[in-house]
Amino acid sequence: MRTPVLTLLTALLLLLPMRSLIAQQQRTPVLVELFTSEGCSSCPPADALLAKLTEQPIAGAEVIALGEHVDYWNNSKWHDRFSSRQLTDRQVEYGRRFHLETVYTPQMVVDGRTQLIGSNATSAVQAITQSAQHSKLPLQITDATWQGNTLTARLTLAATKAKLPHADLYVALIDRKDSSDVRGGENSGRLLVNVAVVRALRRVGPLQQLGKGPLTVHLALPTAAARQNLQLVAFAQRPGLGEVVAVAIR
Fold this sequence. Notes:
- By secondary structure, the protein is of the alpha+beta class.
- Helices cover 21% and strands 37% of the residues.
- The two termini are 32 Å apart.
């Protein structure tokens, strides 16, 4: 049975203007972050919306998702195994950036430009569509290989004459899909399914490093993570968690 959120999203997508096949193939990558928690009863509809968005239903946009589980919902009844203080701190910094009185879940942040309630399909489609109108730097991930429990990859920028902006370069390891049989808290008795679950996130350094050539990065296999389920995301974001100027996935 469809949830109201997915029904609304489907309706919204039908209202989007039809584009040619060529236009649909020319997609601009858009980073969509969802701050969520297994202990939050309002989050499952947002998690479902994020999963739907990763199916690439929006013409002109390639949604690259990060499901970021915060830790402030953890208690004696349920502990979200994907949660971390680092991701909570990232959300708090966004709260300052967007002048919010407090952080909340579910919260969606699109390309560092727009924040919205994570289950609001109308606002999500609008923000992603608008963000896709802004071109990104041609960031690429190449030569991604596992050596034991360490992933090694190279980040490169395709030939570009554009001056590199001041930005921070990040890499993240994400699980394509995870599920949890929740036995306590607000979602007790529910089987929760999440996509693009962030298992590791690290700032590499300034984007300007790529102006000198490819950059090699190393990431350790997260605890209790399956290598075959992981993907690598790289993105560049203006200082202070500002606008995302480049993003890639492999």
